[in-house]
């Protein structure tokens, strides 16, 4: 099993954190892992993306042009990465702030209204955890106990009291995932 993921959005949305949590959790689960961030000089508001590869085999290169899954959190990232999803792959996005929705019909497209849920639950810092939960529902590449270990490893110890709330947000993300377009299965 190899899963090649791009997570992209604005700085401050937890893009890099989400990738780091996945990477640490994968390492704890004895997977081969690559985590390659890319971001502009702005602290918040600039674009950011991270490529994460989780594999049972050695990873030959962290550089990818096509992805099994794209997790998209803003319009600029959707415009840039929609075409980079492999045929038959998955695109997950939060529709808030998206004006031009994905149009491809050779990939599976899902929405997760993470920004709305984070506001409703008064847990805005958990925005990325709702997204992560949606991804893990579709691609359960990380077992729950390793997800917790990934959170413990990537979050500063002063924020460990928030781990249960982050875990709840991950579970809630699995519940609020919605299919927008699923590739039809041919009838034989």
Structure, briefly:
This protein is 35% helix and 27% strand.
Explain how this protein is built.
The protein is globular. The protein has helices at residues 15-28, 75-81, 114-120, 127-138, 144-154, 163-176, and strands at 2-10, 32-39, 47-55, 67-72, 85-93, 108-112, 177-181. It is 35% helix and 27% strand. The protein is of the alpha/beta class and 188 residues long. It contains six helices and seven strands; from the N terminus they run E-H-E-E-E-H-E-E-H-H-H-H-E.
Topology:
Layout (H helix, E strand, L loop, with lengths): L1 E9 L4 H14 L3 E8 L7 E9 L11 E6 L2 H7 L3 E9 L14 E5 L1 H7 L6 H12 L5 H11 L8 H14 E5 L7
Parallel strand pairs: 1-4, 4-5, 5-6
Antiparallel strand pairs: 1-3, 2-3, 6-7
């Amino acid at each position: 099993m190899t899963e090649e993921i791009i997570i992209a959005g604005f700085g401050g949305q937890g893009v890099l954190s989400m990738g780091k949590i996945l990477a640490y959790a994968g390492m704890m689960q004895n997977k081969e892992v690559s985590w390659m961030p890319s971001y502009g000089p702005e602290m918040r508001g600039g674009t950011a993306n991270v490529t994460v590869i989780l594999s049972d085999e050695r990873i030959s290169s962290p550089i990818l042009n096509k992805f099994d899954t794209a997790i998209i959190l803003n319009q600029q990232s959707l415009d840039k990465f929609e075409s980079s999803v492999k045929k038959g792959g998955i695109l997950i996005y939060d529709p808030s702030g998206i004006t031009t929705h994905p149009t491809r019909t050779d990939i599976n497209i899902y929405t997760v209204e993470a920004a709305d849920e984070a506001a409703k639950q008064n847990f805005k810092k958990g925005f990325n955890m709702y997204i992560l939960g949606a991804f893990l529902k579709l691609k359960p590449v990380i077992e729950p106990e390793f997800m917790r270990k990934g959170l413990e490893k990537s979050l500063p110890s002063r924020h460990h009291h928030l781990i249960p709330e982050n875990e709840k947000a991950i579970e809630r993300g699995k519940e609020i995932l919605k299919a927008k377009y699923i590739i039809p299965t041919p009838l034989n």
